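Q: Convert this sequence to structure tokens.
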Amino acid sequence: MRSVRARTALGATLVVAVALVAAGAVLLHVLRTNLIGQAGLQAEITAREVASRIALGRPLDRLELPDDGDERPVRVVAEDGRVVAVSEGLEAVSGTPDGTLAPVPATPAPSPGESEGEGDGERDGDDDTTPAPGEVSGDPARFTSGSATVDGRTADYRFAAVRVTSGGEQRTYTVLAGAPLATEREAVGTVRAAMLAGLPVLLAVVGAVTWLVTRRALRPVEAIRREMAAITASEDLSHRVPEPGSRDEVARLARTTNETLAALEASVERQRRFVADASHELRSPIASLRTQLEVGAAHPELLDLDGAVKDTERLQHLAADLLLLARLDAGERPGTRRVDMAELLQEEVAGRRDDRLPVAVEVRGERWEVTGSPGQLRRVLANLLDNAQRHAAASVTASVRGGAGRVEVVVSDDGAGVSEADRERIFERFVRLDDARSRDDGGAGLGLAIARDVAERHGGTLTAGGAEGGGARFTLSLPAAGRG
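A:
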């Protein structure tokens, strides 16, 4: 069953069916219990009426018993089990203890010399269940269900047994009276039949309503699916799925889908620009190198080896930058080694001997460790120093400091600086603010983009600002490594 509507309708129908069956079973049980209780009450009333007459000393042969024997059968049994009186037409009683609901044995009287309350510790004067002469027992009536045959017809009855002691003979009898259970059987059967007849109809209504409501609720989802299928077929990420006006989960799904499409569109566009810019950046050094090699092949004395080597190095650096960006875009995770940023900065500066300007290093503290990839973090420092030396007028300063669980590396120069409007734009790929300069004097516009991408993947930030004495100021902030 692949349809959500069908599964929802079936599930709702099953739940309602289980609930109705359980409720119906409880209802039938309560109804049966109440009706049986009413029949028992009627039987007890009849039994106590007859017992009252016996208690008043009415002779058994003139005892007035109900004449509607099929509705209220009565039988009076002596202590020895003899049936001493029956209602008219009563032929047999079955399903009761001993067939007659025999009386509860009376508590034996204390033996001579044994005072009342002595003995086994379980009997006292209140435990004697034998009624006093001339009165009906105050004990609760005993109930049971069975059958009785009246005038040849057998039916189910609810019986009540009451004990009584006659006033004249001072003998104890048990009066057994019954009330028919036909009404209970008929009522329960009628309710059961009505429930069985109505249950399928009710379940059909529940299933149909659930199907219609679910179809209406899922209509926006189907619209989203159709639009997504159209976008997939056309490969046009500029389209958006329709957003319903409601504020439910479907509306949030549509908004999230549109946000995802916007992110995908931006990512694809960024990739297209990246490929176009990379191709453009690679074309110039390759064309220059090819020209020099062709000239050298035709006129060896005119070969510019220094220019060829420079173009080759530029191609090598550009290829390395493109490879690193590709790995970062592919989701390469940073390492988990502990790296001392002060030591890493000093090593990077110490290896830059032929740079145009020296770099002054200032370290505040002893060790400033972060967790990450030493190679990628060294690349960030190198790109920041290259950028600063390229634009500085006379000096470049780099410092390491920390606090509040962060480690900061600050690289400043005394150049022209970066305008506030361009301080975010310079971190975009292939962006160069000084477009008029020669490509040979600068990079491809990937250094700062790579530096920020690496910083963010290490859980840090890279921002640009203005230095105190003029120029640019770049701040690399990374989370400090935990004390291990």
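Residues 299 and 335 are 50 Å apart (CA to CA).
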